[in-house]
Amino acid sequence: MDKTAFIFPGQGSQRVGMGLHLLQERPDLVDRYYRPADEILSLPLSTLCWEGPAETLQDTAVTQPAIFLTSLATLDVLREHGARPDVVAGHSLGEFSALVAADVLDWTDALRLVRRRGELMSAVNESVPGSMAAVIGLDLERVEKICAEVATETGQIVEVANDNEPAQAVVSGQSEAVDRVRVEAERLGATKAVALNVGAPFHCSLMAGIEEEFTAELSRITFRDPQVPFVSGVTGDYVTDAEDIVEGLRRQVADRVRWTETVQRMAADGVGRFVEVGPGRVLGGLCRRITSETEVRATNDERRLTQALASLAESPAA
Question: What pTM was estimated for this model as a whole?
Fold first, then answer.
């Protein structure tokens, strides 16, 4: 268990002020990434990351490139200190950061894709309003059964969107059905079933309508075979071919995030350290609950980044 994985967070990890701690040591990151990103997107993304307002940062079309940009800058800091992963993975949106880390995508191409992805996903919610909820304390099979029963009863779409860890699944779909799943899950013994503050019903069949347009966006970009092993959250296994990675990103918008399988696959292959690269600490907590015999490091503030770098410096794999 001597391998190190860099894992990259998805939507929900955003917060006003994210990334500011990186600039204390590396002010050059402003000219290297932040100003170019603002120009590429014609959006004051750096200001939104650092100063908000929080309401704007919650907009899916802004949230996704903001998290990507923060993760990218964090990755640069780790690389400057000589840290290198043995394997990479990302949770939903985080896969784009992971693919930059694996040299599959140029960061500017990934930024444009992430922005367009966020715009398309946000548009779905305008035409078919939906929501998401986390169900905690029930196993995946039970949550799947509840979703199927509620979908039959209501005639609405509600599906498991994320298999986050053995006792946490996220459901996604039309709002009435999601609310019914929450009530039924708690009746059947869930510790809690809480609504998530997200901008759209991600990773369910409501998103299928944007696959064609996003596929067209993907076709305009150059993808390379990964230079660092990459585990896909769509399959929960390694993907080694650029064409298969593109197919995974196409499917990803409407398919389930198989995070439990992703982490289990990496652990089975000898990963004993997970470093969450970017804002937030959600993924680290999930990793601890999926595989207890592991070291987890975060990079979302100065103290935790310093600790992560010290840990990586001690490892021959780093």
Answer: 0.95
Residues 6+ apart with CB under 8 A from 23: 29, 30
Say how far apart CA 26 and CA 305 lie, in whole Å: 13
Rounded Cα–Cα distance for residues 46 and 34 (Å)? 6
DSSP assignment string, 123-151: HHHHHS-EEEEEEESS-HHHHHHHHHHHH
* Distance (Å, whole) CA 129 – CA 175: 7
* φ and ψ of 4, to 5 deg: -115, 130
- Amino acid of residue 84: R
Q: Using one digit for the tens of pLDDT, what is the confidence trace for 193-241?
A: 999 988 789 999 999 999 999 999 999 999 999 999 999 999 999 999 9
Residues serving a catalytic function are: 92, 203
Q: For the residues of 167-179, what is the DSSP string, one character each?
A: TEEEEEEEHHHHH
Residue among 112, 316, 288, 119 nearest 217 (CA): 112
